[in-house]
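Exam revision sheet. Question 4 asks you to relate a sequence to its structure. Input first:
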Amino acid sequence: MTEPPGRRERKKAATRQKIAEAALRLFLEHGYDAVGIRDVAAEADVAVTTLFSHFASKEALVFEQDQDFERRLTQAVTDRAPHEPLIPALRREIHALVRHCTAEGAAPIWDMIDSSSALRAYEESMRLRHAESLAAAIAADPGPPRTPTAGRAIARFAVDAFSLAREAADPDAAVDEIFQMIEAAWEVTGPSRRT
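Answer key, structure tokens:
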């Protein structure tokens, strides 16, 4: 059983959330490039040093749930039931992440990201980091062994599935279509298929 967070952790989480909400509100109202870190700190009623103790950069303010998404991806591998296959567990988590990121009200945020080269670059580096974390979880999985290259490729495919599906007219159908290909690739890399 997970112990509930203490008062200090709850306060830190609330401050982090307040900063992220203030930043997003300002970015959407005035444009990402027009808003500075000091503007966000003032809007959230925190010191600039407090803002930087929660977020490493201005770009990180937009991707406030970055660490949670990365944790969810790796836990899809590490926390699945003992006999649950890997790829269906990943598919389920990617479906959940895509639903979150295509929910009502998300379009203006993605429009802002797509219109900013700094945010697009940050998103790309974030996806690469998520893929590396996911590949490490796959490599440590006690299931049938795969080559490191196979694990890294499947991790990249899964993370890219999120981006491709998010942009599709029917995100759920896109996840399913992409994961059919991922499942086939995973099967091909299985121990009995390698020579």
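Marking note for examiners. The CA atoms of residues 144 and 192 lie 10 Å apart.
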